[in-house]
Structures
1.
Amino acid sequence: MSEICKNWTSWLKSTRFAYMDEEQLKQTMAWLISVRDEILNLADLKENQKIADFGCGSGLLAFGVLERFQNRVELIFSDKFKDCLDECKKILNSSNTLNNAYFLQSDITDIKLKDNYLDRALTRSVLVHVLDKQKAFCELYRVLKKGGYYCAFEPIISQNTRYSELTNQDEISDYNDFKKAEDEFMEAKDDPLVNFNSDSLKENMENAGFSEINLDIKIVSSTYTPQKEAVKTWFNIPPAPGQRTMKDRFLDYFDEKKVDNYILEVQEALSGKEININSKTAHIKAGK
Ligand SMILES: C[S@@+](CC[C@H](N)C(=O)[O-])C[C@H]1O[C@@H](n2cnc3c(N)ncnc32)[C@H](O)[C@@H]1O
């Protein structure tokens, strides 16, 4: 496990932005705000509702709700980890926002709320970190009132562009072996980041009992001209605290010398070249 990524708060505050230049940072922040606003608009929030941001992290969605409604809604900041809730409390105390906000330390697969409690349940990039997604959907369904909605944005990492699609046999030694390894670990059933796709999300929601399911799958296409160092960091930055890096994943299949050589060849192949990366995202509105 990487030392640069000890807990969610430090990941959210710094690791995810590591090695970004000012322009990339600006773009990422603008993107986060646009995703936040999309979820909040989709949720059709109204005064007096009971709203929870599950896996709130540093409160992207919850603070967005507060900005819109101050204390005219009941708002729950919920996360599995205390460091995230402490961070949100700190932000809340340092602003003078009047509020009706509560903090709930809870795993999304075992939510410490009674049945039929919420009008809205929100998540952004949370289920992607949960191994048992079916259990999470059942819990989200249980805590929603009849007529309530779950609204979310979740990345579908298993369907993103892979290194094997960005490179070819002329550029990479043992290309087919590396492709095979990548295809295998990018769909591993025991890895929460990749153990799902758009079909399984829909199936999980139906199984949980959601009746009105709106699952909008988008492909975000980004064009980069990465530099050599940036390509290297893609292999070395953990995608979440406690999660193994891409390099770690390749090390399950090959020895370190071979993986280092592969990374070097990918760096050579991609640096200074315009590349197109597709990311698949799920935009969810599901009603009870
Ligand atoms: C990528 S962060 C997203 C944070 C926030 N929603 C945002 O949009 O910035 C993932 C969050 O999910 C939380 N999380 C991970 N597993 C969880 C679980 N099983 N139950 C509840 N929260 C969880 C983490 O603590 C972290 O805050």
2.
Amino acid sequence: MPTLNWIGKDKIVNHHNDVPFKVLEKKYTFGDDTENMIIHGDNLEALKALLPKYENSIKCIYIDPPYNTGNEHWVYNDNVNDPHIQKWLHDTFHESGITVDDLTRHDKWLCMMYPRLVLLQKLLSNDGAIFISIDDNEQANLKLMCDEIFGQSNFIGELIWKKKQGGGNDSNNVVVEHEYIISYSKSFSSFRLGLDENYQLDDKLYPLSDEKGQYGLITLDKASIQFSQSLVFEIETPSGEKLLPRIVKGKQSCWRWSKEKVQKQYNELVFKNGKVYTKYYRPKGITQRSLLIDAVYGRTETGNDDIKAIFGTKPFDYPKPVSLIKHFISIASDKDAIILDSFAGSGTTAHAVLNLNKTDGGNRKFILVEMCDYAENITAERVRRVINGYGEKEGTGGGFSFYELGTEIFDSKTGLLNNNADTEKIREYVWFAETHTPFCAPKSTNNYLLGTYGRADYYFYYEKNEETTLDWDFLQTITQKADQYIIYADRCLLSDSEMQQLNIVFKKIPRDIKKI
Ligand SMILES: C[S@@+](CC[C@H](N)C(=O)[O-])C[C@H]1O[C@@H](n2cnc3c(N)ncnc32)[C@H](O)[C@@H]1O
């Protein structure tokens, strides 16, 4: 498989491992207490912070990263000269002998995207899919990079979204009226894209209707199919008339159905004007087509109108239409799915999730990440207004919690467990480091139990401000039986033979906690 190379790639391919695990600090909850999250911060750290709980759990990811157009005059920088990203590039490369000035804007963009896509791939569930909006500036690079990260065989398709019509006659040679949406699954064999229910079918094709829905008629005899004498036989109409396949332009046609099928499904035949027909029903949806036309999925203006209707003004440049993102969510997830957008911008993805839930009674959850300071007054504010209603629009209901990136789980200077980190987050991390599965707090009378994995029970006997000791007193508190016990504590007073006999593995806090 051809691979893409660029300056800085060597330094970046494993960079996701060096990103510190940070705690997500909840600042407030708005509306109902749901699992919906809006996280303010760089998505590299936010995605890493989500791993312990959400690895392999996200059904649908939609991202709309900066396209690297070079435009710096929007509310966000649409290139890699954003001060946050410049600082991140500088910090990441400063010891490598490469200076940020050695990188072209394409190198920088690829370095920025690579580790973030690696983490997104880890978060995706086995039956999940990612959709990435992009334009000509980076489309070719992104495709090759995704082949490497997601695997060529997991490529779902490249959709073309017609985003505008008209104007542009002053463009050089070609007026670009489209963007791309590149889509990959985590595991192609476990993934199935849903039907496109928005596709505009031609109503003229389904002029009739019965209790099963709208339908059209198609003659049972066809001159165009492979002729077979066994498909030429008489069919008797309910009024006793006997019909044969017609002779069309001097050529004998034959029935599409065998004699047996006609006998078995006689009730499905329609007799009209001396001809035999079958019904074809209007389908609920069709297999996704690669062209997404603006009349159905919205265009750039639609995204602007969506946000203007909420704020009265347009506080954000080029938000995507709600209808477009809604479409990706509906073809790639079920009603309980978690939807992630780590380049959230004005929060269109949350808007789409809340709208869809309202329409079909679903319980989808969203996780948004936005680095810029408008995460609160544009992203979160838009979601609040969608929940409560705006203008004439009734609210969708629901709620979300707003988070900031907090302390690191490991102190970056000492490398030891950070005492200031939230204990529940440390428990999440320890469980994830041990099992690589998402943490789900167990129902137990023993507060130190993390859970059962395989045939072992994991205990994290940790207190922020005091040393803990694995001894007989602690063992008395364990009532749940397991084949093996993995117990973290500060000290251990049990002998090796006692531990062997009771199948206990002692792990010292914090030295023995694996850094992932
Ligand atoms: C093209 S906009 C997304 C627009 C969005 N789809 C909408 O409809 O409003 C890209 C967003 O990603 C944000 N962004 C860029 N780099 C980021 C990073 N490293 N972490 C989090 N957000 C980032 C930018 O601040 C910007 O708001």
3.
Amino acid sequence: MGETIIRIEHLCKTFGTGDGKVEALQDIDLEIQKGEIFGIIGLSGAGKSTLVRCINLLERPTSGKVTVNGQELTALKEKDLRKARRGMSMIFQGFNLLMQRTALQNICFPLELNGLRGEKNWREKRAKELLEIVGLPDKADAYPVQLSGGQKQRVAIARALADDPKVLLCDEATSALDPTTTQSILALLKKINREMGVTVVVITHEMRVVEQICDRVAILDHGVIQEQGDVSEIFSNPKTEAGRRLVMPNGEKIHVLPANRLVRLAFNGTTSGEPIIATLAAQQGICLNIISADTRTIGDKSFGTMVLGLPEDETEAARALIYLREIPGVTAEEVTDLVQ
Ligand SMILES: Nc1ncnc2c1ncn2[C@@H]1O[C@H](COP(=O)(O)OP(=O)(O)OP(=O)(O)O)[C@@H](O)[C@H]1O
Ligand SMILES: [Mg+2]
């Protein structure tokens, strides 16, 4: 285990009172390690933005503790909090650039605001270096309206990095972008993480974002962290209903006869590529029905899940289960929650 940079303990956030009361976050415990890319994934309304705003205390938690870089933010006075917040910056879905300022001026803005970071020339030199890092060396004088969505997000990333943050919080930073642009922005975030050592927290509703860049992930559902761990573990074998809903979004749409018993196989990246279903049919004469199948590559390993319908015959179903459970690198469990 590395060094913890963000520690959240028993955090709760409630909006409103009485009938209008919303418990947006309930007893959240989370530890984010220095230097990692941590994903927080959940459906709309899960509480993701609230959580990220509680990390930098733009939103005051109703109860609980937030500690960043060894400093307990929830115990700080406003003035000290402002100072502590400088170690964290944020990017958003809507980029939030100042429209009347050029790319260069946008990047200089946080340095001007804190007033401590030298002369205009110094700031502009720094902004130009950052434009290089984000791949837009020729856009210094462009206004936001003259930039594409991807370019705007690059400028926003450069601005977020201007004051050397330790932590970059990204709230749905790629949700307004097409898939190709999303890929390139995620690659940039990864580069910044690896080369500059910035800890990145990625808030998203999209699995593929987490898959592409995150080391670990927490699944947030209705204000509660349902499970958390290494991306490969959580995605190859989600243990909770909320996890399965996100990882296998099509699972809910599967229609099968209620009489059919189902088994879910999760491949953990070590299987030899043996044709399991064909082998079972050829060697044991047992035919399984493929209900759904989905495989993906995370890092350099392949993972996948498959849902199979077991034969109606009880003995055959039992034999099939025994066979499936003995395959190395595969977890087989009966499921009931996919049936609508
Ligand atoms: N300022 C507020 N006042 C009252 N309720 C709020 C406020 N901010 C958020 N909420 C409620 O808290 C819950 C979580 O909202 P939040 O914006 O954190 O969700 P989210 O996961 O970021 O959703 P999305 O993916 O749509 O951005 C929602 O029920 C929302 O209506
Ligand atoms: Mg949100």
4.
Amino acid sequence: MTTDNSDPRADIVAQSPAMIELLRLVARLAQTRSSVLIEGESGAGKDLIAHLLHYDGSRKTGPFIKVHCPSIPEDLLESELFGHEPGAFTDARQTKLGKIEMADGGTLYFDQVQDLSPALQAKLLRVVEERRFERLGGTRTIEVDVRFVSSCNVDLRAAVASGHFREDLYHRLRVVPLAVAPLRERREDIQPLAELFFRRELERNATPARALAPETMTVLRDYHWPGNVRELRSVVERASLVTTVEQVPVSALPAHVVECPQNLWMGRERLPSLREVEEAYVRHVLDRVGHSQTRAAAVLGISRKALWEKRRRYGMPWKRKGRTPKEGGD
Ligand SMILES: Nc1ncnc2c1ncn2[C@@H]1O[C@H](COP(=O)(O)OP(=O)(O)OP(=O)(O)O)[C@@H](O)[C@H]1O
Ligand SMILES: [Mg+2]
């Protein structure tokens, strides 16, 4: 069972208009029992929002129960959720409460809900609709007062379209949709987040560095953060650990952050040549599109043959096959 009773309101960064608006909405929703689906990329802050919906509202004295859908095997998940009576299956000796029952009076949070199996989706539909269920092997119907919050980091509507997620459950869970924007779309949050994570490291480790250097901050602000807030946190933590000077320099950041095209000339005495910028940008685009030749060529606005030429000129390995281009494309 995962219960987390820490107060998430300490240290929440919301400087961007998108985040300010989201928190305003969350504060209103926290007073209701409507089912909320939180959508957003990995690391964007969905768990944080789920916590806020609970601890900021009328249910805060009740339990907050999280179900991390991908990590529990399907056969176990059913009894984890619904509980069981003695004799429901071979190992069931005593009555066991499921998470739905444990969440009575509070919040049940389905993290990465897209991973629920079709069988469980069908079973959950009734609970979410009626807030009633039976334990496995039980006959008595149990009523609960639960607020359902779910999160997903894929396009759940697409999962519905492809038949992987039940449409009826989708609508039930998504009475109110909340979108957590990717960090690159709310850049005003980057600096205060970086400062927050740095301050925490300072308190924890008494590192010699007292601040992030201004150029370091500029590099952080300009990066596109595919891993969102979680990635920013680990970059800042690592940078503070490897630094022995007063201010954390750009060189303490990982190469892929510093060398992304828009950061190429930051904090450097020598400005790069056009060729260097081109090389870095081609690498960057290839990384972003998962090394697909076709997509990279489309983004760059050149033919696949021209892309292949550039890769050969810059000695860029084929990521998947681990070879450098010599002849022919892929
Ligand atoms: N606005 C914010 N202010 C302070 N910390 C934040 C903020 N947003 C996210 N974080 C921190 O960033 C980390 C990642 O956030 P979180 O775990 O909520 O992401 P997630 O969207 O649930 O990711 P995943 O899809 O991988 O589960 C956490 O340590 C969280 O506390
Ligand atoms: Mg999460």
